[in-house]
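Appendix B, example 12.
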Amino acid sequence: MFVYLFRDESGCNTFAYSTDVTGRNIPQSTSRTKWSFVAALADRDIENFEDVRRRLRQQGYYVFQR
């Protein structure tokens, strides 16, 4: 399974995984939020993927901070 990694350009540490390659399903947390595509990743490359997978199934996206 591939998921798509996005970064919020308005913040240096907010990221999201999405099942949509366009990232349109990721909500904007502020009016300045702008999601930029970073990479396509295989599920084996994602830490704590079971939690991420559950949220991807439920919502289609997973927002997190590093």
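The chain has one domain: 2-65. The chain is about 15% helix and 40% strand.
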